[in-house]
Write a structure and sequence with these properties.
single chain, alpha+beta, BirA Bifunctional Protein, domain 2, 8-stranded mixed β-sheet, 3-stranded antiparallel β-sheet, 11 strands, binds adenosine-5'-[phenylalaninyl-phosphate]
Length: 366
């Protein structure tokens, strides 16, 4: 047997004998590692005459490939055996009795997100999503906030030190409005979406947390006007708060990405220490509460997103989900939402067996 054949037979025997991943790795290092016997042989090729190299080259390369293949095969075999062994030991006994009362609960924010999706689906809205780690073009520039725009300063942005491949600054999105841009770029017009999700600002008190949730709404079509926005919000809030006497007030405001812009207030009254939505805010005993921002999509934003503003118009809104959850379910401190206290979750959480549906009343408690 030639030296090469001997080496191959030794290698294959040792690979076959390797009982686990560590032993196999030791065999790989002995033959194919930097100082391994096959690697050392490969290095001798450089010193050979061209004629010798012509016969020895393919032989040594073939040996290297055969040993590498055998190691790869053995590795798969060992991994499969390890998986089989784990599957055989990690058994779940499905016959164990269920706990007396259900453990765990759905967080009110998740519950409200499910309720939102259910109500807007009924109005023909699809759910869109976007990344929480955004670039400043989508979060600001395309929403008509140039580098030097003062509105950028209002957002208390968490920036990353890096820029992306296009030189854009990376940040934690400060609102869900960049999803408007992504949806318009991806699907063009017409459009009817909501985009619920997490957003981040350097902010903290009883009604502000550094991470909170918004739901964006966007409708783009021909002949859309402010009346459609008001009807949509009113219809949504009536379904969400499950009462008919909801009064909205649209108050002139300013957002760089909408023109005109309106802030949305709702009438409410105090019952003990709870704020209860309903009624007209100007009537005695009632007041107005702000729920979010909205307006007609600015023509410049449509252009940034590649939609012709002479052909299409639209409205957009952005509501604080945590705030509307507080109102509906009577919590008074936003920070408790994210403390992870099981007692709070037991009190305010929802049964996982109780999916919100319009027919059952979206907020039905089990
Ligand atoms: C915006 O973020 C706009 N993108 C909304 C918008 C969308 C306007 C589309 C026009 C068209 P604003 O910064 O006001 O706007 O935030 C919207 C809502 O998020 C607020 O009304 C409030 O309910 C909620 N919010 C803002 N900051 C916090 C915070 N730190 N914690 C909890 N909720 C917050």
């Amino acid at each position: 047997m030639s030296d090469l054949e001997q080496l191959k037979s030794d290698a294959l025997t040792q690979i076959e004998a390797a009982g686990d991943a560590d032993a196999l790795e030791a065999v790989r290092v002995a033959f194919l590692g930097k100082q391994g016997s096959i690697s050392v042989l490969l290095k001798t090729l450089g010193k050979m005459t061209p004629e010798e190299r012509q016969t020895q080259g393919p032989a040594i390369q073939g040996l290297r490939a055969a040993v590498a293949d055998a190691i790869a095969d053995k590795k798969t075999t060992l991994e499969n055996a390890e998986l089989d062994a784990r599957l055989a030991t990690e058994k779940l006994d499905l016959t164990l009795p269920a706990p007396d009362s259900p453990q765990g609960s759905i967080h009110p924010v998740s519950q409200v997100m499910d309720e939102l999706a259910e109500i807007f689906a009924d109005l023909g809205f699809a759910v869109a999503t976007g990344p929480e780690i955004e670039d400043d073009w989508h979060n600001f520039t395309a929403l008509n906030m140039a580098e030097t725009h003062p509105a950028r300063a209002m957002h208390d942005t968490f920036y990353f030190p890096d820029v992306d491949a296009d030189g854009r600054r990376m940040l934690l999105r400060t609102h869900t409005s960049p999803v408007q841009i992504r949806a318009m770029q991806a699907q063009g017009a017409p459009i009817r979406i909501i985009a619920p999700g997490r957003v981040y600002r350097s902010d903290s008190d009883a009604t502000h947390t550094p991470m909170f949730h918004q739901v964006e709404g966007l409708v783009i079509d021909k002949g859309i006007h402010l009346g459609h926005l008001k009807w949509t919000l009113e219809t949504f809030f009536k379904a969400f708060f499950e009462r008919e006497d909801i009064t909205l007030r649209l108050r002139p405001s300013y957002f760089p990405f909408t023109e005109p812009s309106v802030e949305v207030d709702v009438g409410y009254s105090n019952e003990g220490d709870r704020r209860v939505v309903g009624g007209h805010g100007d009537e005695p005993g009632y007041d107005w509460m702000e729920l979010g921002g909205s307006g007609m999509v600015n023509a410049r934003v449509l252009e940034f997103a590649g939609i012709d503003p002479d052909e299409y118009q639209g409205f957009a809104f952005g509501l604080g989900i945590d705030r509307i959850a507080m109102l509906k379910y009577g919590m008074n401190d936003l920070r408790a939402f994210f403390d992870g206290d099981p007692r709070w979750l037991r009190h305010y959480g929802f049964s996982p067996f109780d999916q919100p549906t319009l027919s059952a009343g979206v907020g039905a408690k089990a």
